[in-house]
């Protein structure tokens, strides 16, 4: 990278603002970190900063905040506790994102200490109104946060496809002092090597639940990948586009037209599930059955079925490069984890292929299911990897100062 890196910055005695991506899977009540991969991945840069005498002031988002009531379960407090265990030293936590309490906490920091600031997306809701100060990159917010430190390190690869105040906003307000961290460097190098000139056949697997976010990616991927497998929650908007019944499955109605256009352009490049495990409620203990095609009213597809698994394996068996984002089903519930497990296990057997899995939940899935070790690279970025794959600039990286 021709970008400034953390090794180029003066750190000793400095207030080092750091953007990390601690958007980790967390329990519904917000008290337990379910997967710490993204925290572990940021440790080398955090350690480097504190070992060189910097005061590490960490910023991250967690989940999405659209109303006041979303806040308590999306506090970063539990993340601070996990980080403290991993660093084996105290991590201070300040439960606000602006004002005197935050400023005092920063001013009290000693060299080599670590402070985690509350979820940056608390700024998205003020006095009950959805104002999107963080997610909308409010210029005043980026300027304010930048004023709190001496230098800035962005190690949040998973957030690099976003143009938010805590990544792009702070960086643009600290010209010449905004550097990339080690994780950012490592991810870009790895993805660049694997996908700029991919070994073919190149197969992308897309699943998960962020349909409206990621469906646009597929259009661009059609020009890059040889096949695109679509499973998980992403599949059923495509079912709707094909006139297949979807029952109560996850469907983004206002994206059905987009899905239709993609299918028209795709020819036989896109591979959809043939059968699904359907349930009568969103619950591990729901009644379930496997059905081909149509999903009747009163039922929802929560995993791909055995025929889909076979079909997907058939497409994957000759692949030389595979990039996977988004689980094939609701893997957090054991009765709907099989599709994700089978696809993951099969990727592990592809010894001649480069296999990359990206994303907060996808990474948690392959780790939980015990297949992570057989894959070539576990990326912290889901949406970020996909955007990179599309060949688009990542705003979080573009904003980092040039050397
Ligand atoms: N059929 C389905 N119906 C509803 N939800 C689903 C279905 N299949 C998968 N999911 C959900 O998708 C979620 C993960 O999707 P997501 O797009 O967030 O992936 P990710 O790997 O975390 O990527 P990113 O890092 O971009 O968030 C999981 O919580 C999973 O339960
Ligand atoms: O998990 C991710 O992809 C990143 O942390 C970004 O989160 P977002 O999709 O809520 O912006
Ligand atoms: Mg996710």
TrEMBL record:
List the EC numbers from the record.
Answer: 2.7.2.3
Q: Which UniProt keywords apply?
A: ATP-binding, Cytoplasm, Glycolysis, Kinase, Nucleotide-binding, Transferase
**Binding-site list for ATP:** 214, 332, 359-362
Q: According to the UniProt record, what class of enzyme is this?
A: transferase
Which GO terms label this protein's molecular function in UniProt?
kinase activity
Primary location class: cytoplasm
Binding of substrate: at which residues?
A: 21-23, 38, 61-64, 121, 162
Q: Quickly give the catalysed reaction.
A: (2R)-3-phosphoglycerate + ATP = (2R)-3-phospho-glyceroyl phosphate + ADP
According to UniProt, this protein's pathway is:
Carbohydrate degradation; glycolysis; pyruvate from D-glyceraldehyde 3-phosphate: step 2/5
User: Which subcellular locations apply to this protein?
Assistant: Cytoplasm
Q: Which domain of life is it from?
A: Bacteria
Q: Which family does it belong to?
A: Belongs to the phosphoglycerate kinase family.
Assembly notes: Monomer.
| Protein name (database record) | Phosphoglycerate kinase
Lineage of the organism: Bacteria, Bacillati, Bacillota, Bacilli, Lactobacillales
């Amino acid at each position: 990278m021709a970008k400034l890196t953390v090794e180029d910055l003066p750190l000793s005695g400095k207030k080092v603002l750091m953007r990390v991506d601690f958007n980790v899977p967390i329990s519904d009540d917000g008290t337990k970190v379910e997967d710490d991969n993204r925290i572990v991945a940021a440790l080398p840069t955090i350690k480097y900063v504190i070992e060189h005498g910097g005061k590490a002031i960490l910023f991250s988002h967690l989940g999405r905040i659209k109303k006041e009531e979303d806040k308590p379960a999306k506090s970063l407090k539990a993340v601070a506790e996990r980080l403290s265990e991993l660093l084996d030293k105290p991590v201070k936590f300040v439960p606000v994102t602006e004002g005197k309490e935050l400023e005092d906490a920063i001013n009290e920091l000693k060299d080599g200490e670590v402070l985690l600031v509350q979820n940056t997306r608390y700024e998205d809701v003020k006095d009950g109104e959805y104002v999107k100060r963080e997610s909308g990159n409010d210029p005043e917010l980026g300027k304010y946060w930048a004023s709190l430190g001496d230098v800035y390190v962005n190690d949040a690869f998973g957030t690099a496809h976003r143009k938010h105040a805590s990544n792009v906003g702070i960086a643009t307000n600290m010209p010449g002092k905004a550097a990339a961290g080690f994780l950012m460097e490592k991810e870009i190098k790895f993805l660049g090597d694997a996908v700029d000139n991919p070994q073919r056949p190149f197969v992308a697997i897309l699943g998960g639940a962020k349909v409206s976010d990621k469906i646009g990616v597929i259009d661009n991927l059609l020009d890059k990948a040889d096949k695109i497998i679509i499973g998980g929650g992403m599949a059923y908007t495509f079912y709707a586009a094909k006139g297949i019944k979807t029952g109560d499955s996850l469907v983004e109605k206002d994206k059905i037209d987009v899905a239709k256009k993609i299918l028209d352009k795709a020819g036989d490049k896109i591979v959809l599930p043939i059968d699904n495990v359907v349930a009568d409620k969103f619950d591990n203990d729901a009644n379930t059955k496997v059905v081909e095609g149509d999903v009747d009213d009163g039922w929802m597809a929560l995993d791909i079925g055995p025929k889909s698994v076979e079909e997907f394996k058939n497409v994957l068996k000759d692949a030389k490069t595979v990039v996977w984002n988004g689980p094939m089903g609701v893997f957090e519930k054991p009765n709907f984890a099989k599709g994700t497990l089978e696809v993951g296990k099969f990727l592990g057997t592809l010894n001649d292929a480069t296999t990359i899995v990206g994303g907060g939940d996808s990474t948690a899935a392959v780790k939980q299911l015990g297949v992570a070790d057989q894959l070539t690279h576990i990326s912290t970025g889901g949406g970020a990897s996909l955007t990179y794959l599309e060949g688009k600039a990542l705003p979080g990286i573009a904003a980092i100062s040039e050397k």
